[in-house]
Amino acid sequence: MPTAVAIVVLLLACYLIRLNQLLLRTPDEVRKLTPTRWTKDLLFDTYRRMENRPVTTGSYATRIPPKLDRRYIVTGGSGLVGGYIVLQLLERGTPPEAIRIVDFRPPNRADMSHGPASEVDFVQTDISSAEATDKAFRKPWDPSIAKLPLTVFHTAAVIVPSDRSKLVYGFCEAVNVTGTQNVVDAARRAGADVLVSTTSGSISIRPVELFVPPWRLWSNGGGSCWPRHFWQVLDVKDFFEPLRPHEQFFANYPASKAAAERIVCAANSKELRTGCIRPANGVYGNPTDNTVGGALANAVLPTWTSHIVQSFVHGINVAVAHLDFEAILAAEDSASRPQAGRPFVVTDPNPPITYSDLYFLVQTLAVTPFRILSLSPVVMVLLSYPIEWYSLLRVKYPFVGRLLPELTGDVKHLKPGIFSICTHLVASNAEASRPVSEGGLGYTGVLTTLEGMVQEVVEWNRDHKDVPGTRKAYQTSVSLADEIAKAAAAAKLVAGG
Question: Where are the coiled-coil regions (predicted)?
Answer without folding.
Answer: none
